[in-house]
Amino acid sequence: MDAELEFPKQLIDALRSAQQVVVLTGAGVSKESGIPTFREAQTGLWANYNPEDLATPEAFQRDPKLVWEWYTWRRGLVSEASPNPGHYAIVEIARRVPGFSLITQNVDGLHQRAGSDAVLELHGNIMRTKCFEENVLVESWQDNEGIPPKCPRCGGFLRPDVVWFGEGLPEGVLDQAVEAAVGADVFLSVGTSSVVQPAASLPLYARQAGALVVEINPESTPLSQLAEMVIPHPSGEALPALVQQVWGSEKKRSYQ
């Protein structure tokens, strides 16, 4: 944790008095756990493939085996990763404020593994599987059905439960996210490029509704000029330090 990292008094006071805090997370948070971003993941055997050419319904229909194997490889990367201090600090923030919503663009489930619950997953979860034909979650299937495996109900191919290019967000999730954003007293945009819609609009909804919008990201984004505060540090440094400065050390933890 960066001992020299100091936060504006306005932010500290706002968090101490906030009734509703919303955190939106993006790929930068997962990257700190060693999970490459969507495009950085194209290495080794997959270096010659454009991710946009693999993450579409059309690509799956064209070559379901190729797409399934790509996601199997990506699931392996996720399985080897662990939550980082930023994930755990978000759990602490949720514990300390009356109302809290966590919205994520990440599909790795690391927030849940860190202890966050009721996470609004805008883009799904790579560790879940659903039927391509029926769009329903599938918990188990026969492993001898080939690649991809087949749905035990209808016999259609199974696919990862993630949002592909050209697909809509999971039913109801965006509405819940917008409702949370417009009801926020403090909105933290953490580790997101702020270019992927509709997630990129959430901090703008919050700002228009009167929330204090804060960006935590080591790199400048389109939100940087619109946020009231920008903390140019990785979430794994900034969030634990923020928890410490706002609420002190009544409950020590290692953030490991």
Structure description:
The chain is of the alpha/beta class and 256 residues long. It has helices spanning 9-17, 27-31, 57-62, 64-80, 85-96, 110-114, 173-182, 202-208, 235-247, and strands at 20-25, 99-104, 120-121, 124-131, 158-162, 186-190, 212-216, 229-231. A six-stranded parallel sheet has the order 3-2-1-6-7-8, with helices on both faces. It has a two-stranded antiparallel ribbon with strand order 4-5. Helix 1 (9-17) crosses helix 9. The N and C termini lie close together (11 Å). Mean pLDDT is 90; it is low at 250-256.
What is the fold's blueprint, element by element?
Blueprint: H1 9-17, E1 20-25, H2 27-31, H3 57-62, H4 64-80, H5 85-96, E2 99-104, H6 110-114, E3 120-121, E4 124-131, E5 158-162, H7 173-182, E6 186-190, H8 202-208, E7 212-216, E8 229-231, H9 235-247
Parallel strand pairs: 1-2, 1-6, 2-3, 6-7, 7-8
Antiparallel strand pairs: 4-5
Helix pairs in contact: 1-9, 5-9, 7-8
Please identify the structural class as seen in this structure: alpha/beta
Strand content: 15-25%
Q: Quick one: how many beta strands?
A: 8
The succession of helices and strands, N to C, reads HEHHHHEHEEEHEHEEH
- Contiguous uncertain segments of 5+ residues: 250-256
Number of helices: 9
Average pLDDT score: 90
Biggest sheet: strands side by side, in what order? 3-2-1-6-7-8
Spatial separation of the terminal alpha carbons: 11 Å
Radius of gyration: 19 Å
Task: Specify the overall morphology.
Answer: elongated
The largest sheet is: 6 strands, parallel
Q: What is the helical fraction, as a range of percent?
A: 25-40%
